[in-house]
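Journal club side-thread
Mid-discussion, someone asked how the predicted structure for our own chain would compare to the paper's figures. Pasting it here so we can look after the session.
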Amino acid sequence: MGTLHLNGTLDLSGRLTLGDKVLVDGKEVLVALKFGEMPPHSIYGVPPSPPPPTEPIWASSSEAVHVQVIEKLVVVNGAICIQGVARTKGLVRAAPVKVTIGGVAVAVTMSWAQMPTASVMLTASGQSK
């Protein structure tokens, strides 16, 4: 199918499966990954001093989301994310985009995971096959 480029204001809804790769404003849309699936969405943090060891982060999807990219659900603002072996929970804070699912912003690369001790940039989309 190729790459689908979404730009401007668009609110997706219902059950929808999008192409092989989906970009919003030139950035890859995040898709939900299972805990331990590699590569994770991020392993880099912006920690307080002294820096904790970097641990991978995986973002999940909301139960209300039925939009998929390559059979994986799209991640939206406020979705749960999990970091490291301790499975610390945080929330996805989507970068400002005008593409939404049911009025909730779609998360793209360069969105953030707000963890209890740090904000971590989500640098990988999870769209790789």
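Post-session note: DSSP finds no helices and 14 strands in the chain.
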